[in-house]
Amino acid sequence: VIDLLDSLWQLLTTKRETSVVQFQFAIATLALLFGVFAWRSIAPRLLDPSKPPTWLAWGRRALRGALVIAALCSSLQYFYGQRNDGQWLHRWDVYHQVFGAKYFAELGYFRTYECTWEIDQQSAKHFAGVEHMRDIATLEVREVEEVVGERDCEQLFTPERREQFVADIEAMWALEGHGMWKTLFGDKGFNGTPFHAWVLAQLLRGSDLDSWSLVALASIDVLLLLAAFVVVAWVWDIETAAIAALFWAANYPNNFGHMGGSLLRFDYVAMLIFALAAMKRDRWALAGVCVAWATMVRAFPAVFAIGLAIKAGAELIGTRQLPREYARFFLAYVAAILIMFGLSLTLAQGIDPWFEWIANIRTHTEHTRGFRVGFKHMFMLDGSLSDDSRFIGWAAKTEHFRPRAAWFWLAVVLLLAPLLLAVRKLDAVTFAALFATGGFVLLTIATRYYYAMMVLPILIDRPLLRDRKHLLLTALLVATAAVLHALRQVNPHVPFQYNTACTAVFTAWFVIVGAQLWLDPELRDRE
Amino acid sequence: MLLWLALLGVLICLGALALRNAGVPRDRVPARWSSRFDLAWIGLGLLALIFAVRPTLPNVIMLVPFLAAIAAWAWAFGLRSAGFAWMIVACSVAVGFGSPEPDVLAVLPVAAVIASVAAIERERWLIVGGLLGYATIAASWPAVFALAWVLRLALDRDRSRFRAAWPGLVSFVALGLITALLPEHGSSASFGLGEPDPAGPRAVGLRWLFALDGNLDMGKRWLDYPAKLEHLRERSDWLWTCAGMLMIPVLVAIRRLEPPRFVAIAGCTALLGFASVDASTWVVACVLVAGRATILIDRPLTLACAGLLAFDLALRALAHVHPAPFLYNIGATSLLTLSVIGLGVALLIQPELKDPVEA
Q1: Cβ burial B224-250 (10 Å sphere, 16+ → b, else e)
Q2: Which residues contact A99 (CB under 8 A, 6 or more apart)?
Q3: Which of A26, A215, A510, B120 has the fewest CB atoms within 10 Å distance of its CB?
Q4: B299 vs A384, A422, A518: nearest CB
Q5: Distance in angstroms (rounded) separating the CA atoms of residues A276 and A293
Q6: Is B204 helix (H, G, I), strand (E, B) or coil?
Q7: Which of A245, A233, A227 is nearest to A76 (CA)?
Q8: Min Cα separation A145/chain B (Å)
Q9: Are the CB atoms for B95 and B89 separated by under 8 Å?
Q10: Nearest residue to A507 (alpha-carbon basis) of B327, B288, B314
């Protein structure tokens, strides 16, 4: 038994086994979902529903137990087995989060790299060997001296803050992983919203940057996600929570190694899960606050609120009165946004950081990149998709997309049409979850790890193991994870995996949801 | 122009679905509107004919079997269904009406299969058997449609239908034998993973989604087809499992689907899952709109029309960006797989594939 447990531990905690293990979890989940589907289809003919046999209750308990064990194993693989570079702490991103937020008032969005290098040059010279650096304002990579230019960073700090900055550089250096510094300044800086920076600054206030303090801060994400799945178990049921957790861990672009072990990288999705749970429990104001948090830290979760606004608008037009729950949601949403916005203004005394953030994001999203996913990629299929040799470049892809923008928007309208036309026939939780996911896939081009959002459709307001439509749509979602993990073994070309394959399978999933909605706008199992 | 016609077809189908979902009952639509709409649709079909066909003798000759098949379709399923079927055929990128060197004989088995589904609706078993017998020997891939037909007959609850269909089985064998004496024609399919043909830039089949190694559009890391087939053989377990899973919804619905619909769906699903065929063969997908003049009323049928026209539209758009092999090996195969999975989901939920609200 000990040998067996040891082998299991090795399997679940070895990073290079991630794709194999998660593929197997995905296949097992698929088999289970299809099995339950088959049972749900034939059980009404075999059993008298008024007298369920005892073994059925035992079977259900056994299924629940097996699901919980599987979800715990897959979560262990996700939260620990997928850890970054053999270390749980994601030092690369921790640097960005810590220096971007803690020194936001002095450095803003554009001078983090330059001032880290410049001030280090005046003290320990850890980064003397770095040759190239990205100018975050233009995203061009040039010689370090050229990017740094005039050495004026010292003037930005008070003596105490400068001393703290130097100490923090030393603390980051002490985390080891020295090799990463050669390329780290070629990344694209800190891009969180000013409110995200404000939250991080509060967390980092008075905190030492030693390994254990950072691990404790990075654990907040893990705790938030665990809390989110516990809430799902409470509001939906244990089986739904376990299946959602299994999909979460297997979902290919949502690899923990991408952003896990950093600071507040998953709070937005935990908040959206809390929001759905709160809506299901008729706590609409709480839901509004949760969605406001998600919106203020990552902006794109506003698509969730837009979906609910469409639903509220349709109800208003249809019934000539706004249901109270929507009024409560939006009052809380707007109030929370205003409060959070006000708090963010205290970070650098003024609204300028928000304008800077908009400019920064605009530059960032002008062209797509290899790690990004989104429906727009289906209109940028020119050149080689799976090889660097005839790759046309990101700027050329943007150029190719422009004349096709009208077709893109037409496709978006046609793909969203069944959902929008079903707005009054679907309940608020289901509509919001589907619109948030569909809107996110179709309207944005987002970096891979934000596709954690794909867990939301599992949390529609249907009993997962009883509604056969929901079972099938969830099975297809899990199938996307299996397909993408298998594809990784076959074709490791990163832009192909994300730009093309992830986009294609998520779009395909949404097309099938749309087809189901065309056939039955209520999306209910009618058996 | 064909791209715009396909788009128009998609919009009309989706508009009809939107009206149905908005609760507009079918009896609110005056009958004269319905017949005028059918006439307008025939006009669109003629427009598609003009734009699809290069005015050369071989191309016009190649058109004849298709027009005969569509006429059979109109006889069996009504004008509207024939109009949609023709639009799906005309808008197809792969059909080759516009080709400078069309293979006239290659289209005969395709047209025969389309006509055979129409004959199944009319229960003209002699014709069904003859057409399928000829097509199976001429091109091999129609065997999956023939098999689906025999299976459906064998499992039919109405035993009299099976007895009545005996002459069809005889004509299947007879025409098959006669065809075997003719010179080889039609594009054959590859069912196993050992045969090299058709493994080329125009091949379409589920298996090509299991050979995504290396470069996909003949770049530096492009793997040639023998190497792809080698990879496929290594992954054959997964391939056949997935192909088998695609068949499950169809087989579950075998007794609940009407015979022409079952033959159409089972044939197309098996063709995609188990065979690799030349892209032009996939014009046969138009049989998926088999239904008696209920397009724009019956939701599953209307959605099938929209899906097939959207498939044509997407391939036409993709053809501007990526030629073969990506266009067919990956693009067409992915879109067809998506359609078959969508159809499978609908069948699992509602095996009769009737309008869910009315069922």
Answers
A1: ebeebbebbeebeeebeebbeebbebb
A2: A107, A112, A116, A168, A172, A190
A3: A215
A4: A518
A5: 14
A6: strand
A7: A245
A8: 37
A9: yes
A10: B314
The answer to whether the CB of B46 falls within 8 A of the CB of B79 is no
Element (H, E) at A435: helix A428-443
In angstroms, the Cα distances linking A482 to A270, A408, A414, A450, B334 are 24, 28, 28, 18, 16
Where are the strands (E) in A201-311, listed by range? none
Quick: pLDDT tens for A264-317.
999 999 999 999 999 999 999 999 999 999 999 999 999 999 999 999 999 999
| Alpha carbon B329 to chain centroid, angstroms | 17
Beta bridge partners, A140, equal A135
Tens of pLDDT, residues A476-501: 999 999 999 999 999 999 999 999 99
The DSSP call for residue B254 is T
CA distance B1 to B122: 35
Q: What are phi and psi of A134, to 5 degrees?
A: -90, 135
Is B356:A520 a contact under the CB 8 Å cutoff?
Answer: yes
Which chain A positions have a beta carbon within 8 Å of B220's beta carbon?
A: 387, 389-390
CA–CA distance, A338 with A428 (Å, rounded to integer): 24
Report the Cα A11 to chain-centroid distance in Å. Answer: 25
Tally of helices (H runs) and strands (E runs) in chain A: 24, 4
B318: closest CA of chain A, how far (Å): 8
- Count of all residues that appear for chain B in the document: 359
Number of neighbours of residue A252 by Cβ within 10 angstroms: 28
Q: How far away is chain B from the Cα of A458, in angstroms, using its nearest Cα?
A: 17
SS3 B209: helix
Q: Residue written as tokens 């406001």?
A: A292
Which residues share a beta bridge with B203?
B278
**Can you tell me the distance from the alpha carbon of A334 to that of B37, in angstroms, rounded to the nearest whole number?**
49
Tokens of B122: 């009319």
Q: Which residue spans within A315-469 are E strands per DSSP?
A: 372-373, 446-447
Whether ipTM tops 0.90, in short, is: yes
What is the DSSP code string of B314-335?
A: HHHHHHHH--TTIIIIIIIHHH
Beta carbon pairs, A and B, within 8 Å: 99
